[in-house]
Write a structure and sequence with these properties.
This is Capsular biosynthesis protein. The protein is an alpha+beta fold and 243 residues long. Helix content is 58%, strand content 12%. It has two domains: 72 residues, no CATH class; 110 residues, EIF_2_alpha (Alpha-Beta Plaits, 2-Layer Sandwich).
């Protein structure tokens, strides 16, 4: 015989196991909040902008072809910025303990479409150190790029600045708690239905009706021990009076 679950049964199960669902929900949110606020190390991000272009030689006009050439070289510049040639000097200048691999991973180079401006973003657990790495990377690149390529006009448009009370980019406690709340709710509901499915004990007259597939005609109310003793005493008293 196939068992079907109606919408009424679903709400009945949720209402019956509501305390379990709420407990799982609160536990998940509490764990996510505690881990986010007290155990995860905050990571900050800062960035600097670099403009790369060619100087006019012998007062020739700056034509559209020059712009396209510079745009096509943006990807090359991005690779050079994260290359050991640049990052080794950054590590030496700042006396960093990070390896080149770690530094490369924490630096992100990007550019807007059809733009000769390169954004150098740095992530670090220390905001001051992130600012120093971003600015030093831009400065080293500005010094080294003329030696590597035929580029003689590199300008730093906006250096990275340490802003007080800057918020870390991660972790995001609110987002983590929201995700945990959703997961906790799903787990709580899942456990509630699992318990209900595995629970085969007969507790109510409705359970008996479902098992025997017969309609209930009547019920016998349970008699407490106090009422039973009281009735026996009353019977004895009546017996004494009758004699």
């Amino acid at each position: 015989m196939e068992e079907t679950i109606s919408l009424h049964d679903i709400f009945k199960t949720i209402r019956k196991r509501l305390l379990l669902i709420i407990s799982t929900f609160i536990l998940a949110v509490s764990i996510a909040g505690g881990v986010s606020y007290f155990f995860l190390t905050p990571v900050y991000e800062t960035s600097t902008q670099i403009l790369i272009s060619q100087k006019d030689v012998e007062n020739k006009q700056f034509i559209q072809q020059d712009v396209q050439t510079n745009l096509q070289l943006i990807n090359t510049y991005s690779v050079i910025i994260k290359s050991p040639v640049i990052l080794t000097k950054v590590v030496n200048n700042l006396n960093l303990n990070d390896s080149l691999e770690v530094l490369n991973k924490n630096i992100n180079v990007s550019s807007e479409q059809d733009s000769q401006v390169i954004n150098v973003s740095v992530q670090n657990t220390n905001l001051k150190e992130a600012v120093e790495i971003a600015n030093t990377t831009a400065e080293v690149f500005q010094e080294e790029i003329p030696k590597l390529m035929n580029v003689d006009n590199v300008k730093i448009l906006s250096p990275a600045v340490e802003i007080k009370n800057s918020k870390p980019i991660r972790p995001n406690p609110i987002l983590n708690m929201a995700i945990a709340a959703l997961i906790g709710l799903m787990i709580g509901v899942g456990i509630a239905f699992l318990i209900e499915y595995l629970d085969k004990t007969i507790k109510t007259e409705q359970d008996i009706s479902e098992v025997v597939e017969l309609q209930i005609l009547g019920l016998i109310s349970p008699i407490s021990q106090k009422k039973s003793k009281k009735k026996k005493k009353n019977k004895k008293k009546r017996g004494v009076k009758d004699v």
